[in-house]
Structure formats: structure tokens, C-alpha cells
């Protein structure tokens, strides 16, 4: 049966490092698998300030009012 070079590499890596998958799961849990605080997320969304249409322009609004 055909196995690509990538599949062969991954199998070899798993054989050489038996705890690799567990460490990957721990790393994922550390950074990504989190419970979402929906109240905080809603408050953060409500507090968001809308972006101007052209963000690279200068702020001439103050200069025009003088």
C-alpha cells in the first residue's frame, strides 16, 4: 500500500517521541480549549468603537473646526 513521505515522516516522529500527541493536546488545552464567558464577550462587543471608513487618513476633523 502506498504511503506518502509525509505519512512516513509522521509515523517515524510518533515512534521516536511517544509522548508527542499528549504534549500537543496539553498545549492546545493551554491556549485554545477554553470555556467562553458569554457575558464578558457580549460586553466587549457592546464596547467596541466603530472603525472609520478610511483608517490611514489624518485626523483633520479637529483642524477644520479651528
Secondary structure blueprint with pairings:
Blueprint: H1 5-16, H2 20-31, H3 38-46, H4 61-64
Description of the molecule:
The chain has 66 residues and is an all-alpha fold. The chain has one domain. The protein has 4 helices and no strands. The mean pLDDT is 87.
Strand content: under 5%
Distance between the termini: 78 Å
Topology as a string of helices (H) and strands (E): HHHH
Q: What structural class should be given to the helix and strand makeup?
A: mainly alpha
Q: How many domains, as an integer?
A: 1
Q: Compute the number of helices.
A: 4
Largest sheet: none
Brief descriptors of the model:
single chain, 66 residues, mainly alpha, 0% strand
Give a summary of the structure in a few sentences.
Helix content is 56%, strand content 0%. It is mostly helical and 66 residues long.
Amino acid at each position: 500500500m502506498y504511503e506518502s513521505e509525509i505519512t512516513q515522516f509522521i509515523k517515524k516522529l510518533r515512534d521516536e517521541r511517544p509522548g508527542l500527541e499528549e504534549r500537543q493536546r496539553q498545549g492546545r488545552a493551554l491556549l485554545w480549549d477554553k470555556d467562553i464567558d458569554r457575558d464578558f464577550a457580549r460586553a466587549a462587543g457592546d464596547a467596541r468603537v466603530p472603525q472609520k471608513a478610511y483608517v490611514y487618513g489624518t485626523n483633520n476633523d479637529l483642524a477644520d473646526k479651528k
